[in-house]
Design a protein that fits this description.
minor pseudopilin epsh fold, mainly alpha, Helix Hairpins, binds manganese (III) ion, three-stranded antiparallel sheet
Length: 200
Amino acid sequence: MAFVQDPLPFEINALEPHGMKAETFEYHYGKHHKAYVDNLNKLTEGTELANKSLEEVIKTSFNDSSKAGIFNNAAQVWNHTFFWNSLKPAGGGAPTGDLAAKIDKDFGSFDKFKEEFSNAAATQFGSGWSWLIDDGGTLKVIKTPNAENPLAHGKKALLTLDVWEHAYYIDYRNARPAFIKNFLDNLVNWDFAAENLAKA
Ligand code: MN3
């Protein structure tokens, strides 16, 4: 069974009024993300990994140098689907309920969380990701290089921002901090993060 690319959870032009053009998704979803899916299928075709779940492929190929290409493509398939779900039209603002309470407890305040998340996203040198994770009951911000993700480390991801240059070059050129600020102000899908927190 081949790995498939999940549909975008919004129309391709839905984020245009909120700082991300349809053209960004034509490339980022239509070309970059699709290529990871196609490469993963080529690399796993006819092997035992072709019948495993995407999550299992990521976990079994992480830190196995003979499967580096499989890990990179599998993790990038997962990371991008997770990223699309971390966005929504007219998102942003502040979380509510249990998630808001946990952010206050573990970061001191929502503003401190935003500062830590922005800092992680801005200081990831080169390509990578910034994440909000649940690390055994404590919320933390981490950054990962290239395709690496919390799942590979056995941690639960709540939210992510792609800080590869291809994620923001069409909308923001080289201005990564403006892309990060727009994500937090106008795009974060806190409902998705809260659903992830509630999962066992
Ligand atoms: Mn990307």
